[in-house]
Design goal:
Number of helices of chain A: 5
Order of helices and strands of chain B: EHHEEHEE
Largest sheet of chain B: 5 strands, antiparallel
Distance between the termini of chain A: 26 Å
Strand content of chain B: 25-35%
Oligomer: heterodimer
Number of strands of chain A: 6
Order of helices and strands of chain A: EEHEEHEHHEH
Radius of gyration of chain A: 12 Å
Helix content of chain A: 40-55%
Radius of gyration of chain B: 15 Å
Largest interface: A-B, 29 and 30 residues
Number of strands of chain B: 5
């Protein structure tokens, strides 16, 4: 799992590569917390995310709650079929803002 | 053709990471479809994380044996651990309709396993928890 960040105007885009599971989530959590310390508008780029388990979902839910509490926004794009399926089973596709492309996600911020 | 691998690791973060990477290698070597590989990776992670937290609550650090068998029709994964008796099937399904604010963190993992796999079974056998997962290679 690798994380890289870039900023477009005041939107922070965080790309997560590999898997978000019980072994990688502690590191992902630290990286995301560091971004959440200053970011109000956050877009997660999942184009290179292979799969996500509940440990990864937990991090997303935590980030969504933090941003909601501080009046920020969270969006994500680039979900593969498996990640999409996990989102649907868990009900996350209806509580998180999932976009079809980066442009669409930026437009929704 | 029939292929299999088997490994035993400690119920630790490192042990789970070893299983993840061994399974990814096996999947690549035998050209497992990406969707099947990812579903099994998620299920493996959920169950191994569960064994880990179960082990933490119990006595000694426990160990878990993972066996993966692949034939022309399906992948069968058997997880055997010597931890505290725990039936992952005896869990209430979480409420997946709650909003971000209402949603408790956690409780989803075993629900995912049940939905992603075609069959899940549990047995307590000779002092071990034995969970068997089956994923069909072709949709039935």
């Amino acid at each position: 799992m690798q994380i890289s960040t870039r900023t477009l105007n005041d939107v922070h885009i965080v790309a997560i590569t590999g898997s978000l599971d019980s072994t990688t989530s502690p590191d992902a959590q630290k990286s995301l917390d560091a971004v959440l310390a200053y970011a109000k508008r956050l877009v997660l780029d999942f184009s290179e995310l292979d799969y996500i388990s509940s440990a990864g979902l937990r991090i997303l839910l935590g980030a969504a709650k933090k941003l909601r509490a501080s009046g920020g926004t969270l969006g994500m794009f680039g979900l593969n079929q498996s990640v999409r399926e996990v989102f649907e089973i868990s009900g996350f596709s209806s509580i998180l803002s999932v976009y079809r492309s980066e442009a669409e996600a930026l437009g929704g911020m | 053709m029939r292929h299999e691998f088997r490994m035993t690791v400690g119920a630790t973060r490192e042990g789970v990471a070893e299983v993840n990477s061994a399974f990814a290698g096996f999947a690549e070597a035998h050209a497992l479809p990406a969707g099947v590989r990812r579903s099994i990776s998620v299920a493996l992670d959920e169950l191994l994380a569960n064994v880990r937290s179960n082990a933490g609550a119990g006595r000694d650090p426990c160990s878990v044996t993972v066996e993966v068998e692949l034939d022309d029709e399906r992948v069968t994964v058997t997880l055997t651990d010597d931890g505290t008796p725990f039936d992952p099937l005896k869990r209430d399904a979480p409420d997946t309709t709650l909003s971000v604010d209402e949603r408790p963190i956690g409780g989803l993992g075993l629900h995912l396993v049940g939905q992603l796999m075609d069959q899940v079974s549990y047995q307590r056998r000779d002092g071990h928890n034995v969970v068997v997962l089956v994923k069909q290679l072709v949709d039935g």
